[in-house]
Design a protein that fits this description.
Elements (H helix, E strand, L loop, with lengths): L19 H7 L4 E3 L17 H9 L4 E6 L5 E2 L2 E2 L1 H16 L3 E6 L3 H5 L1 H19 L6 E4 L10 H16 L1
Parallel strand pairs: 1-2, 2-5, 5-6
Antiparallel strand pairs: 3-4
Helix pairs in contact: 2-3, 5-6
Length: 171
């Protein structure tokens, strides 16, 4: 069997099998998504996670956690909300201390998806702040650019937005 061919779609180039991305992904075998807390709008959805949760996750043999965050609610004046960091950092640190890989992503940035041109600078600036904050953390903390892009944030625009986000992270 082979994958469907969609008319008008150009097949992407196949990368070598031993890139840094392949090696990073090879570490991710069995993970837990810590959803419905830090990506919730202000006021939350009633879900919380603690360092004790991380201890249980590690004890059960998981090797990574994914941590969705709605950063757009927690960034202001070039800084991350201290309240968010007070909740988030102990959990991330415990996961790293327990040998878990941590994937932190940007979740539910619907304004960017609806109006990419209007919000793409804020997205890149946000990643600059986030990356600067976590710059000295262990390399087993991964940054996932954006969860579930949709709407006008189509492939062409998303490629541009991703490139700007990556540049901001690497600067």
């Amino acid at each position: 069997a082979s994958a469907a061919h969609v008319p008008g779609v150009t097949k992407p180039a196949i990368l070598p099998q031993d890139t840094p991305a392949h090696r990073a992904c090879a570490k991710l075998q069995r993970g837990v998504n810590l959803g419905n807390h830090w990506e919730a709008p202000p006021g939350g959805w009633g879900i919380t996670y603690t360092v004790e949760d991380i201890d249980l996750i590690a004890k059960e043999g998981f090797d990574h956690i994914r941590v969705p965050v709605a950063w757009h609610y927690h960034l202001a004046d070039g800084k991350i909300s201290p309240k968010l960091l007070a909740e988030l950092e102990p959990v991330l640190r415990r996961a790293l201390d327990r040998g878990l890989t941590v994937i932190v992503n940007w979740h539910h940035f619907e304004d960017l998806c609806r109006e990419p041109e209007k919000h793409r600078a804020a997205f890149a600036a946000g990643w600059s702040v986030i990356a600067t904050h976590f710059k000295t953390w262990r390399p087993s903390l991964y940054l996932e650019l954006l969860n579930e892009p949709n709407g006008p944030l189509d492939h062409e625009m998303l490629t541009t937005v991703h490139a700007e986000g990556i540049a901001a992270i690497r600067k």
